[in-house]
Design brief:
The relative contact order is 0.05. The chain is mainly α and 182 residues long. Helix 2 packs across helix 4. Helices cover 73% and strands 0% of the residues. The protein starts with 16 loop residues before the first helix and ends with a helix.
Amino acid sequence: MIHDKNEPLRGEVPVPEHIGHNIQMIAALFAKAEHRVGRHQLAIERMTDAFGRPVTVYLLALAIAAWILANLLAPRFGMRGVDPPPFPWLQDATCIAALLVTVGILTTQNRFAKLAQQRAHLDLQVNLISEEKIAKLIALVEELRRDLPSVKNRKDSLADAMTEAVDVHAVADKLEAIQVSE
């Protein structure tokens, strides 16, 4: 049986159509952003994802302990250790691995920071549009209130102030002044 994506699964709460549409649009935005990512970037992200798991810590600790133990016990069995104390090869290998992991993490964080910045910019644009629409609605409701003969006419300074769109530059300047004074 094929599941219709618009039908809720058993036990799932149905989502109103407009919310489902918004969810699909957001998923499409994420998919579009992921589609633009190159092979090398994805490979680095898979590497950092793998190194970011607890099992990696255990495997590295086990490998390092095995390396040290093998090189310490080799003379007892009449063999020469590949990397005798103070283990210069192990030190070099860990430095190189640390460098590669650090660069991989920075590369991954760079892309995620750019995505976060784009999403914040989109949020700001949507919020500004919403704010303008809300200000217009308040103005229309106030106009309707004044025009209705059955509603007592009164002065509402807060509603009057809310009919004006927010000056983004003034708000940004005020926030910056607050941050500088702290």
